[in-house]
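TL;DR need structure tokens for one chain.
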Amino acid sequence: MSDTTFDYIVIGGGTAGSLLCNRLSRNKNHRVLLIEAGRKDDYHWIHIPVGYLYCIGNPRTDWLYQTEPDPGLNGRSLRYPRGKTLGGCSSINGMIYMRGQARDYEQWAQLTGDDTWRWDQVLPAFRQHEDHWRLDADQLAQVSEEFRRLHGNKSIGGGGEWRVERQRLRWDILDAFAQAAQQAGIPATDDFNRGDNEGVGYFEVNQKGGWRWNTAKAFLRPTCYGRPNFEMWTHAQVSRLLLQDLPGGGQRCTGAEVWTGSEMVTVHAEREVLLCAGAVNSPQILQLSGIGPGELLQRHGIEVRRDLPGVGANLQDHLQIRSVYKVQGAKTLNTMASSLMGKAAIGLEYALKRSGPMSMAPSQLGAFTRSDPGQPHANLEYHVQPLSLDAFGEPLHDFAAFTASVCNLNPSSRGTVQLQSADFRQAPAIAPRYLSTAEDRQVAADSLRVTRRIVSQPALAPYRPEEFKPGVQYQSDEDLARLAGDIATTIFHPVGTTRMGKSSDAMAVLDSRFRVRGIQGLRVVDAGAMPTITSGNTNSPTLMMAEKAAGWILKDPEENSRTSSAEPEVLFRLTL
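>> reply
TL;DR here they are.
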């Protein structure tokens, strides 16, 4: 830490931060510093896919956040995992590769006034780093030109850093659920990432040869580790950003104060500071730095440097409602892992073949469908698992069962992330405000009925499914919405707390290029920048956003380091 001046400072070594460091440090003239509050990703359970069970709720890899008691969840508080290690949430998440729907990005283009967020404009950024198993040399002849157009990298096949593979196990009970979903009118699909993800099929995952493939492995090593212009600090937490007042008004971000565990170190950025700490930590860091809702900052004795009321607002998340069904005559993880011999067999299979339950993502089978026929598009996502338990982290049930978790893809409820004190070491208050709108409560009730309709189909009849949770006695809209509050939990997709938007949008924190309003040399590049949540898992869309940000920064670093006051259509014209 003897040298504390860099061209670019990246705060957060998670999904977006890892890619940005890779792209920016390719130019040997760019000195890049990565600051990560957690440790290196050298914990073995990070890399074994089933290890998420030992990473979530573990201070070695998780910030251990809790939500505020939530009225929509009948007063319950939820565990709110966020990755605290290199790779960030990509080191502890469900590994599901999901882009979302084309309509998500069309909406972003409207909300930001910038057509570069349209589906056909973000697709190249997804492809730029994707390495899809179907485009491997031994598979290439079997795929269509359309698939190559949607997934092909610049090379003849894949060739990007972000590996996408098929899962290495199947379950008869999940195959039966997929058949039942088709009988209920949901089409089969082998690709959830073509722009319209309606259908049922096995998820594809970010793994490589049966190991988790996180962004630290994909983008930091070995490339960045071998570059003399790249430096990385771990166990280093940013306490606040440094702002310099400019003649004529406004500020410029010049660096940050960093707590190393023993001392406070000041670092300086000659070009830009890139805040990539995630939808919870990025708004907290901004607020600690005097950037946020003025009344909130004053309440905690923090000088208001830039009154931006949208910092920490607009929190969106996917709330999953977990229905559990007992079954007969089916192999499930509950029964396989119920004995020492069963556990030993599972371990041996993984050791020899890198397959079996230890290689599986938290959810294997997915389905996208509509909560009612009047919906114009798929607005529900299912994560189906050959197991059941009372709550995450609890023991598996002692009976054979599967879980069908369903979430509203486009919730209208909005929450907040707000600091609780001026002490950077204190966790922020996270208030998702789930099910706080009548629309979300109706979708919750309807989604439980869709689950029952799927399970009642002939394909599952041989297994005699019995609804264990929530219970068939609950039938009315009111009952089902209340039950959703009792049994639903987060699926770990917080976004939107530093959202992009037009200059006329008073709640927009960023312009369409991730630049903080009114502050030069500062961007926020993470899921918090999403104006609205994507229709699916959020990790890979965050990676796409970082890819686009890197392109803009490297294309014209001088222009892009300045905060523009131009109208969005003018800004778009300037950056073509």
